[in-house]
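Problem 3 from the worked examples.
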Amino acid sequence: MDLLDTILNAMDAPPANNEQQKTLIKKQRELMERMQNKQKEELLRFRKYVDERMGRFAKDDRQYIEFQPLDKVHRSVIHEIAENGGFIAMSFGREDVDRHSVVYKKEHAPGEDEVTARRNGDGWNPEIAKEYAERRRERLAQEQSDKEASTSEASANCTSSSTAGDPDSSEVKPTTNYKAKYAHLIGESAALQAARKTETNQSYGFVPSKNKKDMRSIEQTLADIQAKKRLRLAQQQELEQEQQAPEATSTSTGDP
C-alpha cells in the first residue's frame, strides 16, 4: 500500500474546470434541453393537427387525403394515428425530396394502378387512372397473346414429335454415311462390329424387391442373433483350448 500511495500522490491531479468552462457547459446543456422541449411541443401540435384532420376526414365523403412532404418522424405520427383510427396509410416519393403520406379509408383502398402511379411519381386523378387502366389492358392482352403463342407452339412440337414416332410416316434417312467419315479411324470392317446393338445383361442387377425383404419374425431374428453369439463364443473357447494344450504338454515334459 505504501508504494501505491506513493505512486498516486506523485500523479498529477486532473485539470480543474474554471468558471468560464463551467458556464459554457451549462449553457450548452440548457440549449439542448430547450431544443428538445421545442421538438416535443412541435410534435404534440402536429399530432393534434393530424388527429383533427383525420376526424374531419372520417365524417366526409372523401376517399383519401394527402399530406405535404415530411420527414420520417412526422410520417410515423401520421401512420400511427391512421392505424388507430382504422385507416390505411401509405407513403410515396423519394426520401428527403418529396416523400409524403396518403391516408385512405378502408372501403376505398388503393388499387394496383393507383399504387403504381404514385410510386412512379405521376400522382392520381381521373385522367391518370384512365391512362393506367389502358396500359393494364394492353399488358394483359399482350400476356394473353404470348401465352396463346407459346401454347400453340408447344402443341405443334407435340404433333411433330408424334408424327416422327409414327411407323407409317415417311422414314428419315441421313444424308451422310458415318462409316465413310470415320473409316480412317475404325476401318471398313470394324465399323460393323462396333455398331452392334448392346443389350442389358438380364442376369445382373435385376433382383425382385420381395427377395430383399427380411421375412423373419422378431422372435426368429433374436434367436438367430443369439445363435450367432453362441457360435462365436464356442469358437473362441476352442481356440483358447488349442492354445493352452501345447503349453501344458511342454510343462509336463520339462518336469524331473
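Problem 4, a separate protein:
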Amino acid sequence: MSAAVPELKQISRVEAMRLGPGWSHSCHAMLYAANPGQLFGRIPMRFSVLMQMRFDGLLGFPGGFVDRRFWSLEDGLNRVLGLGLGCLRLTEADYLSSHLTEGPHRVVAHLYARQLTLEQLHAVEISAVHSRDHGLEVLGLVRVPLYTQKDRVGGFPNFLSNAFTSTAKYQLLFALKVLNMMPEEKLAEALAAATEKQKKALEKLLPSSS
C-alpha cells in the first residue's frame, strides 16, 4: 500500500489574515486546463498545469512574496504575475488554500487556482516569453506531465523527482487532490516511485560501505 500524500498544516484565509507582523505571506497561482490530447496517440494527457523554472534552478508556481503593508493578497499576487506572465489577473474567487510552512522562517503560503481553456493556457505561455522577468527571475514555464508511463517512472513520477521550492510540491499535490484532477492513491504511487528513484540515484553516487 502506498504511503499517504504529505501535507503542510492548512489554515483558513481568515486565520491567515489574523497572523501577526512576524509572518510573511507568499501568493502563487496554479493555472490549468483540461487537455483532451494523447501522448503518442495512446496516453491521455487529461490536464495541463503550468509551473515555472526559477532563477535558482527550483520549480515553483508563478507568484512570490506579498508585502501586506502595501498590498492585498490578490493585488500583490497580480503585481508579481504581471512581471512574470504579463497577461493575467486573479481575484479572491480563485483563492484555493493557505498553508503554514515548515522551517525557521514564518511564512504562510497562499495558493490560487484558475481553470482556463487550453487556448487561454497557450496564450499565457506565449505572453510569459515577453514578460519583464523572462530569462531573469523566471527561466521559463513548463507543463506538468500528469500521467505515468508503463515503466511506472516516466511522466509524473519523474517530474516529482525534480527540485522544488519549499512549498510548491506540497501545493501541487494538494491542488491535484482537492480539485479532483488525480486520485489520491495515484498521487501517492507517483510520489513513492519518485522517492524510490531518488534513493537509488543517491546510492549510486555514494561509495560502497563494503
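Solution to problem 4. Helices lie at 13-17, 73-84, 118-129, 156-160, 168-178, 184-205. The domain at 11-146 is CATH 3.90.79.10 (Nucleoside Triphosphate Pyrophosphohydrolase).
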